[in-house]
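Why do we bother with holo predictions? Because pocket geometry can differ from the apo form. Keep that in mind while you read this record for magnesium ion.
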Amino acid sequence: MSKTIAVIRGDGIGPEIVQATLRVLDSLRCGLDYRFAEAGMAALEAQGELLPQATLDAISACGVALKGPLTTPIGDGFSSLNVELRRRFDLYANVRPAISFPNTKARYSGIDILTVRENTEGAYLSEGQTVSADGETAQSIIRITRRGSERIVRYAFELARRKGRKKVTVVHKANIMKTTSGLFLNVAREIARDYPEIACNEMIVDNTCMQLVMRPEQFDVIVTTNLFGDILSDLCAGLVGGLGLAPGSNIGSGAAIFEAVHGSAPDIAGKGIANPCALLLAAADMLDHLDLVAQGTRVRAAIRATLAAADPRMTPDLGGSGSSERFADALIERLQTR
Ligand code: NAI
Ligand code: MG
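The structure, written out:
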């Protein structure tokens, strides 16, 4: 079976890590074809627009995209491209795995947490933000809907079921935010009943922060609203050593976009030393999404083994003396000898 995915090389280190990632994907010989499209500064320079229609068309046609980081220019009139993509394709679930890898500078080991964040409502609405005429009072609204809560919680439980996970923790602040967080929690309780084989517990967000730092091993899947999920997923990335190994996926009714959590790293762009692992782990999640679960698992295993062996071809941020390309060579070698 051949499947075409849209590929956006992106800005800064984007082209370097995308190149390394596609070489590793090619070595799996799983029938992926690529339709390249531009976005970000690369698109602005070549086509005069940050997010050309042709790119949106490519993402809709393929349904799945692998995306390098995009630089959003600073200044008026440029809204975040990631926010725009989220809106266009109704990317309601932001899924961020935080997994411990060997030989990193992380403070913890043995962590494997999946954070599922609602990505379209909650406290992050662009509308409804006001400032009083005297500039003394600012307000914004939080909107939680039954539909929005149902689909994110169901997504989290379906993901847990598919991946054989044991527990979903619903994170909320319903004790204070009784209407909004309360609705989310009530809906979550209803949905949880459809998944009797998966344990469901509830935790208030501030306690969750403390528990994540003190006993992270108690967490399996976390599902929560937009603002809490934004903060908790970065907290979880910090537990396992930061951005270099942090993938993210944005799943919607219109498309699914897989990317690294980090940005375009202008400070090291063009040097060929960017760590491709976060994007590779996103690509592994993309393979899972495409029902190529065995291949996704092989990619993660190859990364794990390469880190465990402290292969000198790893990039400098992981303590190696290699480059994006040499790192890809090391991974391909492992994938071919299995
Ligand atoms: P950044 O994540 O690009 O860089 C932060 C630090 O981490 C830098 O020192 C960088 O060298 C390092 N780093 C990041 N990725 C790395 C990798 N793969 N290998 C080795 N080192 C790595 O964050 P920053 O500097 O705040 O943002 C730069 C640009 O990226 C901005 O224009 C921002 O808007 C954009 N950005 C885009 C994102 C996306 O498209 N999803 C996400 C975050 C930022
Ligand atoms: Mg964030």
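The first strand starts at residue 3 and ends at 8.
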